[in-house]
Automatic annotation (TrEMBL):
Xref: SUPFAM superfamilies: Concanavalin A-like lectins/glucanases
Predominant cellular place of this UniProt entry's protein: secreted
Organism: Myripristis murdjan (pinecone soldierfish)
Name of this protein: Pentraxin family member
PROSITE patterns: PTX_2
Localization terms from the record: Secreted
MF terms in GO: metal ion binding
Obligatory cofactor(s): Ca(2+)
Phylogenetic placement of the source organism: Eukaryota, Metazoa, Chordata, Craniata, Vertebrata
Length: 220
């Protein structure tokens, strides 16, 4: 167990390769805030890896601005194999996703304000491309949370939408990644790290019972 001085636990920029955040219990408080100085996004890609045994609703990524609580949201619905992407508060549902429990999943979500199209990638498989919202950017100070879903700017958490499990390798870009770059992410090859959020230089704050741990390797 590494020891960090207390002040560094609250605001720090850390190289997190090989690490994961563990959300070990259902609460309406425990979460991680991811900090970025960037704002005003006309396009977004978010990629992350997640692990859970939840079959209820749960959040994977929540970005709120003062004008929209679901300005960019990645949300697993209770309905089997259904994942929602919301952009600018407008959601699209992606069905038939092989959302296997108790295994690491690689998830990417893209959105572009010009076309209004969102797309989900799960373990290398692209979804249908679906319309969410067009005509305006994600604008204003973004509060980004892992572990809790925001119904207001930085709050409005619901234990029944919290994540219990682990999250790793979170990146966010202010453009739509090419299919090849997404595959490189999913296959754990070299890829261009996020220019909005970069897991290799992450600025974050832990609130409540969330642990930063070594990702557990599988030994045969
Ligand atoms: Ca909610």
């Amino acid at each position: 167990m590494q020891f960090f001085p207390v002040e560094l636990l609250f605001v720090c920029v850390v190289y997190l390769s090989g690490k994961m955040f563990t959300f070990p219990q259902q609460t309406n408080t425990a979460h991680v805030r991811l900090n970025t100085t960037r704002e005003d996004f006309s396009a977004v890609t978010v990629c992350l890896r997640s692990f859970t045994d939840l079959s209820r609703n749960h959040v994977l990524f929540s970005l709120a601005t003062p004008s929209a609580a679901n300005d960019f949201l990645l949300f697993k619905r209770a309905a089997a194999n259904q994942i929602e992407i919301s952009a600018r508060n407008v959601g699209a549902l992606f069905d038939g996703q092989e959302y296997t429990l108790n295994t690491w999943l690689s998830v990417c979500a893209t959105w572009d304000s010009t076309s209004g199209l969102g797309q989900l990638w799960l373990n290398g498989k692209p979804s249908s491309r679906k319309f969410t919202s067009t005509g305006s950017n994600i604008r204003g100070r973004a509060i980004i949370t892992l572990g809790q879903e925001q119904d207001s700017h930085g709050g409005g958490f619901d234990a029944n939408q919290s994540l219990v499990g682990m999250i790793s390798d979170v990146h966010m870009w202010d453009y739509v990644l090419s299919n090849c770059e997404i595959h490189r992410y999913m296959d754990n090859l070299n890829f261009t790290p996020g220019n909005v959020l970069n897991w290799r230089a992450l600025d974050f704050q832990i609130r409540g019972r969330v642990l930063l741990e070594e990702k557990q390797a599988i030994c045969y």
